[in-house]
Design brief:
Blueprint lengths: L5 E6 L7 H14 L7 E4 L3 E6 L5 H9 L3 E6 L8 E4 L10 H8 L3 H12 L5 H10 L7 H8 L7 H10 L3 E9 H11 L3 E5 L1 E4 L2 E6 L6 H15 L6 E5 L5 H6 L2 E5 L3 H6 L2 E3 L6 H5 L13
Parallel strand pairs: 5-6, 5-10, 6-7, 10-11, 11-12
Antiparallel strand pairs: 1-3, 1-4, 2-3, 8-9
Helix pairs in contact: 1-2, 3-4, 3-6, 4-5
């Protein structure tokens, strides 16, 4: 590619970036960006980089969003490949909110999910909302945790994201406002080096309705990012942070590549990087990885 100061990455769902969609995306770039060379394909018909002479005007993002394409602009002075990954779990690395699904075991999923949504939108204090939701589960049998885990599915692209970054030397942490029962299993399954989350109190085979303290909240996630970068000897600019809710916003804004993944409106609005439609492999393409470098193997 030409030595241009900016790069625009376009990502579509697998195999969609062709035909009419490609023509419309190319036309949008021609109208709203100073393109200095041809596209460099990272993955055939899925992701590519375009060299730009300047930051594109605001209309480009609107048009690409309307086309269903995820996109990001990078400056050449930024190191695209990051050395640290810190990720939220619920609705990010897994497809559901595990506490809501656990509430389903108690027959109160709708009630708890409404509180979860307000908390993730930033309308409620996270710790207070967590305590309220867990209190409603008092007396639920411990076996419900295993049943909930069995119905919890990993988000598409999550395993490739973590294992590819790990294979290229990055340190990967799963840091969640959820619970250790789930993060310990999901973290190992996906390939994270470590996990950190909250603790559900259990006695005599049943939930007590209490949460262990201190509660891992928005500030604790930010502290975890600083700690992880410190251990890795990496600046915050060398980190990827990804999540979907208000509880993730502090770490998303602090990281060099903070990504709002299918996020709540306030988070999407505040994040520099957004993934709205494609899967978590998009974070690899944003970092400049090519399809041949992406792996599902745990190394």
């Amino acid at each position: 590619m030409t030595n241009s100061p900016y790069t625009l990455t376009l990502v579509a769902a697998d195999g969609m970036l062709r035909g009419n969609l490609w023509e419309r995306a190319s036309a949008a770039l021609a109208a709203h960006a100073a393109v200095t060379g041809p596209a460099d394909w990272l993955a055939p018909a899925t992701a590519c980089d375009w060299p730009l002479a300047a930051v594109p005007d605001d209309h480009l993002a609107l048009e690409l969003d309307a086309l269903g394409l995820d996109h990001a602009v990078h400056h050449q002075d930024e190191t695209r490949r990051k050395r640290v990954l810190i990720a939220d779990m619920d609705s990010t690395i897994v497809q559901t909110e595990t506490l809501d699904e656990l509430a389903g075991e108690a027959g109160i999923k709708e009630q708890i999910a409404a509180i979860t949504m307000r908390s993730m939108r930033g309308e409620l204090d996270f710790a207070e909302a967590l305590v309220e939701r867990v209190a409603a589960l008092k007396g639920l049998e411990e076996a419900a945790l295993a049943r909930t885990l069995a119905q919890t599915h990993v988000m598409p692209g999550a395993t490739r994201l973590v294992r590819t970054m790990r294979a290229h030397g990055a340190t990967c942490w799963l840091v969640s406002g959820g619970f250790t029962y789930f993060t310990s299993h999901i973290g190992k399954l996906v390939g994270f080096h470590a996990d950190r989350s909250n603790t559900l109190c259990i006695a005599d085979g049943r939930l007590t309705g209490e949460v262990g303290h201190p509660i891992l909240d928005r500030n604790a996630k930010l502290e975890a990012l600083h700690e992880l970068c410190g251990q890795a000897g990496a600046p915050l600019a060398a980190a990827v942070a990804v999540g979907d809710g208000a509880n993730d916003l502090a770490m998303i804004q602090a990281a060099g590549m903070g990504v709002a993944f299918r996020a709540k409106p306030a988070v999407k609005e505040a994040a520099r990087f957004r993934v709205n439609r494609a899967d978590l492999s998009t974070l690899l393409y944003f970092q400049g990885y090519r399809a041949a470098e992406i792996t599902d193997d745990l190394r």
